[in-house]
Amino acid sequence: MTTDKIALVTGANRGLGRAAARALAARGVRVLITHRDDAAEAEKTVGEVRAAGGSADALRLDISDLASFPSFTSTLRERLERWSASRLDILVNNAGVGVFGPLENVTTDDFDTTMDVNVRGTFFLIQSLAPLLTGGGHIINVSSSLTRHTSPATSVYSASKAAVEALGRTLAVELGPRGIRVNSVAPGPTATDFNGGAMRDDAEMRRGLAGQTALGRVGEPEEIGDAIATLASDGLRWATAQRVEVSGGAFL
Ligand SMILES: NC(=O)c1ccc[n+]([C@@H]2O[C@H](COP(=O)([O-])OP(=O)(O)OC[C@H]3O[C@@H](n4cnc5c(N)ncnc54)[C@H](OP(=O)(O)O)[C@@H]3O)[C@@H](O)[C@H]2O)c1
């Protein structure tokens, strides 16, 4: 199945962003992905999409570098033109960082990095790219199951994702008159490089988290990618300002 839709997925050189890019492409969406430093891994995502018959291209973006947003937007417009397009249909704000630690260990740098990337970068990227989104367009912000349940040493990260959900709900109201939806996907613990790869590589942590999950295990990146692509599909076109948790029933 092909569509004429185009998605931009941030932080898709690995992890959940790569899985989301692949899942969107599998549903016929052309995908532009961003990477910060690792161009080779971004090209790997592009190669995987193309090998599966889809269309993909990669752009560099550091979402903590707001000064680069105007030139990023120009580059994005040029890439869209190569596809004879001038608009974006789906923006997946996936790029994010997890800086974890108990209250007494959190530094101002930890706090600022988390907020700069997860909140400030996400908000101002939406501001920069909203003019490119058309009626029927969709913004999906990647949040976390941690906005619903608690886990020690995650306060700043959880607060950053709560902010992402809150700004998404308000932007759903602001952008609704233009026919643009804004939703959040909230993954539970998922086996990626995130948090030093702990949810993938630390057997004890995996066992512990599995025991706190209704479905008895941590998630796989493809399960989050599929959720993002499903939320982006027309079948859910009447859903906006929603938080969709995909956690296998974590910490119920
Ligand atoms: N895995 C989980 O258990 C889990 C659970 C809930 C929510 N999430 C959220 O899901 C999203 C993706 O996480 P993941 O598991 O795929 O983690 P990951 O493997 O660590 O990937 C994070 C991605 O974000 C990018 N990124 C970080 N800072 C950036 C910046 N300043 N500018 C541009 N890109 C930046 C990374 O780029 P580089 O490769 O250059 O670092 C990478 O592509 C994040 O928002 C995370 O908070 C993850």
Automatic annotation (TrEMBL):
It comes from the Bacteria. Residues 5-188 form the Ketoreductase domain. Gene3D superfamilies: NAD(P)-binding Rossmann-like Domain. InterPro entries: KR_dom, NAD(P)-bd_dom_sf, Sc_DH/Rdtase_CS, SDR_fam. The keyword Oxidoreductase applies. Keywords: Oxidoreductase. PROSITE patterns: ADH_SHORT. GO terms for molecular function: oxidoreductase activity. Belongs to the short-chain dehydrogenases/reductases (SDR) family. This is SDR family oxidoreductase. It comes from Streptomyces sedi.
